[in-house]
Amino acid sequence: MPEGHTIHRLAEDCLHRFAGRTVRAGSPQGKFSDGAALLDRQVMYGADAHGKHLFLGFEALGWVHVHLGLYGKFSFGAGRAPAPVGQVRLRLSNDDHYADLRGPTACELITDAEKNAIHDRLGPDPLRDSDDPERAWRRISRSRTTIAALLMDQKIIAGVGNVYRAEVLFRHGIDPYRPGRDLGRRQWDAMWTDLAALMREGVRHNRIDTVRPEHTPEAMSRPPRVDDHGGEVYVYRRANLPCLICAAPVRTADLGARNLFWCEGCQRG
DNA sequence: TAAGTATGTTAAG
DNA sequence: TTAACCTACTTAC
Questions:
Q1: Considering only Cβ atoms within 10 Å of each terminal Cβ, which end of chain A, N or C, has fewer?
Q2: A5, A15, A102, A185 from A164: Cα distances, Å
Q3: Which of the four pLDDT bands, split at 50, 70 and 90, describes residue A232?
């Protein structure tokens, strides 16, 4: 489930389990054997996340840069690690914990300079306290591109994916096809603040929940809904189901090779 | 058993 | 704009 909240949560989880002591590292699948051999028995001293990029810091060696892509996953376990199952690119372990990484787009050792280059090409991340939403606003407010496309552009804002995009636009009643430059400054500030709050909750619960208390199934006397992505949302992957607020069927369309979901009634220009 | 799907990104055309 | 890539799971036949 890799949007930005997942990555920041992974940084915390890795820090908590592995930082400050030597780790054992291996690549059962074999595709990261050389890197893992260098990491083995080294001390992890820190972890960082920017958007969907995860960095694990190792003194003298630099950083392990991980990008999960569409279906990469980390899984954690307690105690001694069992025999690996499936395609495990990287396994980290100590006496108390293990972590298995499967299916990442990127898993590589990089230098400080290379890490900085990644930060430089990413926009501000609502989960990084010191990041400045003004940088994103400057790009958005001058762009003819739709706000839906801009929100997914990691150079403009880092960490937002298809779920947060759909949900934040719904929560602010914004037509996904509205050009960025037609967005109001107030609207952008509100969206950024909302994203930061939603994504922080995402880190805390390790899932995406966006439905306000007054619109939950219980509050509206609707049958509870089981979501296959694990969170409570308004429109994401709810194509043709009734909008939780106005009951109109949720619309879906292709936008930049990704599925867009929105409610035409609730989200206007 | 095969096909389709997924919260992503890059490179080729 | 399209294809390719990384993996696991669900659905169709």
A1: C
A2: 10, 25, 24, 20
A3: confident
pTM of the model: 0.96
A204-240 burial: b if 16+ Cβ within 10 Å, else e: eeebbbbbeeeeeeeeeeeeeeeeeeebbbbbbbbee
| Residues written for chain A | 269
Active site residue A31: no
Per-residue pLDDT of A176-219, as tens digits, reads 999 999 999 999 999 999 999 999 999 999 999 999 999 987 88
**What does the pLDDT look like over A78-127, one tens digit per residue?**
999 999 999 999 999 999 999 999 999 999 999 999 999 999 999 999 99
What angle, 0 to 180 degrees and rounded to 10, lies between the N-to-C axes of helices A4-18 and A185-205? 40
A150 CA to B7 C1' distance (Å): 17
Residue pair A100/A91 in contact by the 8 Å Cβ criterion:
yes
H or E segment and range at residue A244: none
Name the burial class of residue A24, with classes exposed (0-12), middle (13-18) and buried (19+) by CB atoms within 10 angstroms of its CB: middle
Give the largest CA-CA distance in chain A. 58
| Nearest alpha-carbon partner for A208 in A160, A247, A254 | A160
Pick the catalytic residue: A73, A178, A200, A258? A258
